[in-house]
Amino acid sequence: MELHIVEAQMQRQEDGTYIGKTIFKVASHKANYEITFFSKKGDDWDYSLHYADEPGIEEQFLLVDARIEEDDEMFDRLLDAAWDTLPAE
Hints:
Blueprint: E1 3-12, E2 18-26, E3 33-39, E4 46-51, H1 58-70, H2 72-83
Antiparallel strand pairs: 1-2, 2-3, 3-4
């Protein structure tokens, strides 16, 4: 699955938790996707996938969601894009 990172960001909150997001495109898909990340310590990540703008085709969304769940490299690429924007402390 060919993807292109559009935008990413990550912030560390005052309570020490991390919140970030990556907006990305998948080749041949109508809609852009946004994956949001949350971690209490920066090592165990929860995520949520949704459309970045207008809704797209549900079957494509479900394929992307399943791929993220199964493909550690894809997940890491999306997370790393956000992590790399974290301001230095």
